[in-house]
């Protein structure tokens, strides 16, 4: 098993209705195989969308990095009932495995009932250990040398965090095996609708999973939530924050769920479901103090759909560079002084400063990260934040991170 090309375990997002769980169950790859042929490069809807063929994250991992799926003659090799054949005792390290946690909640393979997120976390724990055993058998490595990457969309990121942060749900062996975590559009600080967090009493179809108090329970963060009023933190004991990447979508206009009601109620500064400010993570040290942001990239993509964040070239390029790359670039803006015209000096100023950013490899049609005022995604600071001596920390503004790969394609 050659680092950093570890097994990739994909964890999909929330499926509310029984029909959505059925659709997920019927898809062998739970959406990770969906591609796209169009993309929006700007918010000007008067211009027609551009054609751009993106095969899918699954196919690209196979064609560019030698990964393979884990189905054989119609059987799921990872399933406990799979019987190995001679000379084929497990799976290679470069395998893509899907955490099919909605099978039991579908009407096709289960009872059709939604399950609490704790059930999905425990199942992820068992899956990681099962994948470890299969890779160990095939690659001939020691179990303690096994590593894997977790790649999650939406609620899937909360499933992964439950494993990493709640020791009652995830075992030490499974946590130790996780090398990196990549999330697409995960509501790390819950979902707000109309400016209000999803209420805890909204238990139908487990929708209260995105209530911050409920999240504090399954993430084992009650004390942190009481202290900060937020849950978008990851303790260093769970996973170093340097090993986490948050891919944040900024295109609410193309999210059509609930006939467009979702994007209307969630509002501006979102991907149509998750607010930009709720889609990233911060590290916590042993004393519970906030340290630094996880690496975060911004793309003009919706939460899902034809212009979704998962089936996009931009997110895929961030994914593989984060997992396999060898150069990290953190982009900050340091504000040393805010100069005012003579006529405004000494007067109270109520102003908002917006910082924009675009970063792309030279000559590419897509961008690794994009923060634009038109798309409600710039970094914002008030005049008071940038001039008050009591708020010096606000003068160093984290904008984004990008990863580059001089050795990404390893035969």
Folded structure, characterized:
The protein is an alpha/beta fold. It has one domain: 3-Layer(aba) Sandwich (Rossmann fold), CATH 3.40.50. It is 23% helix and 22% strand. The protein has ten helices and 21 strands. The strands form eight sheets. It has a six-stranded parallel sheet with strand order 6-1-7-8-12-15, sandwiched between helices. Strands 11-13-14 form a three-stranded mixed sheet, with no helix packed on it. The protein has a two-stranded antiparallel ribbon with strand order 2-3. A hairpin with a 2-residue loop joins strand 4 and strand 5 (75-76). The chain is globular and about 85 Å long.
Q: Using only CA atoms, what is the Rg?
A: 22 Å
* Distinct helical segment count: 10
- Low-confidence stretches are none
Instruction: Give the tally of structural domains.
Output: 1
Number of strands: 21
Gross CATH architecture: 3-Layer(aba) Sandwich
Within CATH, the superfamily carries the name: Alpha/Beta hydrolase fold, catalytic domain
The main sheet comes to: 6 strands, parallel
Q: Which class best fits the helix and strand makeup?
A: alpha/beta
Gist?
The chain has helices at 18-26, 57-65, 117-139, 155-165, 172-177, 212-218, 222-228, 261-266, 313-324, 383-387, and strands at residues 8-11, 36-39, 50-54, 71-72, 75-76, 96-98, 148-153, 178-184, 192-193, 196-197, 233-235, 244-249, 282-284, 290-293, 295-299, 327-334, 352-355, 357-359, 369-371, 379-382, 396-404. By secondary structure, the chain is an alpha/beta fold.
